[in-house]
Amino acid sequence: MRQRRIVIAAFAGVQPLDVVGPAQVFAAAGALGAKAYRTEVVASTLDPIETPGGYAIVPRARLSSVRGAIDTLIVPGGEGTRAAIADADLVPFLERAARRSRRVASVCTGAFLLARAGLLDGRNATTHWAWCDALRRGFPAVRVLDDPIFVRDGDVWTSAGVTAGMDLALALVEDDHGPRLALEIARQLVLFVKRPGGQSQFSAQLAAQAAEREPLRDLQAWMVDHLDTDLSVPALAQRAYMSERNFARAFKAETGMTPASYVEGLRVERARLALETTAEPAEQIARRCGFGTPETMRRAFARRLGVSPAAYRTRFAA
C-alpha cells in the first residue's frame, strides 16, 4: 500500500488540536497496521510554535522546502488566523501547494486562509459556527454553510471547529480506504461516534442567545418540554403576559431569532434525535415534535438541513 503524503501548514497562534487531532487520526491508521499516511507539519520557520496548552509544536520543515506532490494539504485554524492571512509566505504557499495536491482541507477558521488563497471561490464551505457570518462577509464568492460538521465540494473539504477536524480526518480516511478502517480508528481513539458531515454543529438552544428577561428565559426553557403544544406567537405572548407585537420584538432582540425560527429549530433538533436513535415512524415523530404532519416536518428539514427526514434517518441512524 503506497503511503499518502499529508501536509499540515501551521502558523503562530494555531489551534493545536486542529493540528494534532487530524494528525493522530492518520497516525492511528498506521497503528492498526495500515501504513497508509505520512504526515508533515510545516511552517514559515522551524521555530517551535507555542500553544496555550503549555507545549509547543515543532514543524518538520519550512514552507519553502516543501517540494513534490502532496496527497492532502490541510490548513488548521486558531486565534492566529487573522495574522496568518497577511503572512507573506503562507498564503502564496497555499496557492502553489494546492495545485500539486490531490485534495485540500481546512479545519475551523483555516477556511479563511483557503478563501484568501482563492481556493473556495464558487464552492460550498463551512467553518466554526461563530465565524460563518464573518467568512460570508469577507469572501462573498464562497457559499458558506452554517450547520454541517464538514463539507466536501469536489476536491476541497472544510470543517467546523476544533474536534470537527478529527471527524474530517476520519472522513478522509474513509474516502481513501473505506468505512471499516475509519470506524476502527474511531474505536481506537475512543471517539463517541464517527459523525457524518451533514450532522448539525450545535443545538438550536446554543444557536440562540439566552434571553435576559426572566419571563422570556423561563419561556425558552418551557418550550423545550412542550414542543407538541401551540407555540404560535399569540400563544407564547399570552404565556409571557405580553402583547404579541411587544413579545415578537423583545424575543428577537434578546435571542437573535424570531419566535417562529426558534421554535422550528427546537422541533427539528428533537426530530433529528428521534430519527437518529429510534425506529419511531415519521408520522409519530412529526406529531410528537409539534410539526403536526410529516409534510410540515419535511419542509422544515429541507429548509434547515437540506435533506428529507427519510434521507436523514438513512444517513445518520444509529
Mind telling me the C-alpha Rg? Answer: 22 Å
CATH homologous group name of the largest domain? Class I glutamine amidotransferase (GATase) domain
CATH class of the largest domain: Alpha Beta
Distance between the termini: 32 Å
**Strand count, sense and closure of the main sheet?**
7 strands, mixed
In terms of DSSP E residues, the strand content is: 5-15%
The general outline is globular
Q: Helix and strand string, N-terminal first?
A: EHEEEEEHHEHEHEEEHHHHHHHHHH
At CATH's second level, what is the architecture of the largest domain?
Answer: 3-Layer(aba) Sandwich
Number of E-type strands: 11
In CATH terms, what is the fold-level topology of the largest domain?
Answer: Rossmann fold
Quick check: average pLDDT? Answer: 89
Tally of helical segments: 15
Feature tags:
single chain, 318 residues, alpha/beta, Rossmann fold, Arc Repressor Mutant, subunit A, 2 domains, 7-stranded mixed beta sheet, two-stranded antiparallel ribbon, 11 strands, 47% helix
